[in-house]
Known about the structure:
- By secondary structure, this protein is of the alpha+beta class.
- It has 3 domains: 2-131, 3-Layer(aba) Sandwich (Rossmann fold), CATH 3.40.50; 147-209, Dna Ligase, domain 1 (2-Layer Sandwich), CATH 3.30.1490.20; 214-324, ATP-grasp fold, B domain (D-amino Acid Aminotransferase, Chain A, domain 1).
- Helix content is 27%, strand content 33%.
- It is built from 9 helices and 18 strands.
- Strands 1, 2, 3, 4, 7, 8 and 9 form a 7-stranded mixed sheet that branches. It has a 5-stranded antiparallel sheet with strand order 16-15-14-17-18. The chain has a 4-stranded antiparallel sheet with strand order 10-13-11-12, with helices on one face.
- Helix 1 (19-29) crosses helix 9 and helix 5 (154-164) crosses helix 6 (189-196).
- It comes from Nocardioides marmorisolisilvae.
- Residues 133-314 form the ATP-grasp domain.
- Its EC number is 6.3.2.3.
Amino acid sequence: MSVLVVADPMASLDPQIDASVGLMDAAQRLGHQVWICTPEDLSARDGRVRARAQRITLAPRVRGGDHRWLVEPTWYAVNASTTLDVVAEVELVLLRIDPPVEGRYLHTTYLLDLVEAGGVRVVNRPEGIRAFHEKLGALLLPDLCPPTLVSTDAAELRAFVAEHGACVVKPVDGFAGLDVWLVRDDRGARALLESATRTGTRQVIAQRYLEQVDGGNKRLFLLDGEIVGAVLRRPSDDDFRIGPPCAPADVDEQDQRIAAALAPLLARHGLALAGLDVIDGRLIEVNVTCPGGMHKTDALLGTDLSGVIMRRLTHHHENTLLKEFHPCLTP
């Protein structure tokens, strides 16, 4: 089987932690050909999508004792370069461009719509990524989320902060922890909110700050709506934002309730892979544009989330109970 990974340039990926690299490695271990290209390498002529692609082989890797893998300085080799007729020569496309979903990302999804129309599976489905906003999509299930306000109005946001004492504020198109603010009910709140909203010109999300985050922000890994793994991440002493995976996480009844509620929405939009952020049983975000964390979790816990995902996506039936990959999962 040939797997095409549409991603940002390889030079921008960190092979020690990047989830896309973990998926490539898993595909290679399963005996598949791994091809890579960037959005700029895609073109379409008369409805046929072509990709200027490279077939690669990844160097061996070993767990490094934390959330990182130990890899060789030259961590992959290019075996061939060619232009692929994607529908004719590829069986699976992984859309692995980092957010935000802006012009470059959107144009890529429209080209990949043609690939999907030709009968090749694209994960996640381009149309679904456009339809389901990973920060606002959770609000389709407000009972599962902490109190949340989306607004450009600093005065409205200020009143919301006063109501809840402290809020995490972030732009609706933010990513990777950038421009995330912890706003408390004090004299500095109004100025921070004016900066966050760029004086009323940018939509931001304000959510009640959950102090239980010190006990861990749980990342739930969903595959076809099912939880296949979980890991805890915690803030550091000098930064309220979430750090890398640090400990295994138990999957409890509330986690299963959240996954069950989201599963029909994800299935409707063809979003096979999702990463849910959950704090104290409350849904914070549904990451679907380029869900990550699997490679880090595999390094930390010795699981094989990347392998489980690629076996499912490439139609290898997973006959092993999920508990063997993530012993903390509970029925």
